[in-house]
User: What shape does this take?
Amino acid sequence: MEEAGFPEREAHVAEHSALIEHAKVRLQLFRNGAIGALVMPNFLKAWLIPHMQIMDRKYAAFLRRHGVR
Ligand SMILES: [Fe+2]
Assistant: This one.
């Protein structure tokens, strides 16, 4: 992403980093018994689908515009 010069790289990476931090919190809550087993897959689904539909598609379109197949 950095090598390709993607202008929204920082925002994209920040979103991934935030996901990891939020997932870590939920994992700890799950291990402590504070949340149920379905919280994590529901959280990931709620994050992943819009991320792919918006952020990842922007990156894919950028790569296509710059000749990456
Ligand atoms: Fe992504």
User: Anything to note?
Assistant: The chain has a mean pLDDT of 94. Residues 12, 16, 51, 55-56 surround fe (ii) ion (CB under 6 Å). The helical segments are 9-31, 39-65.
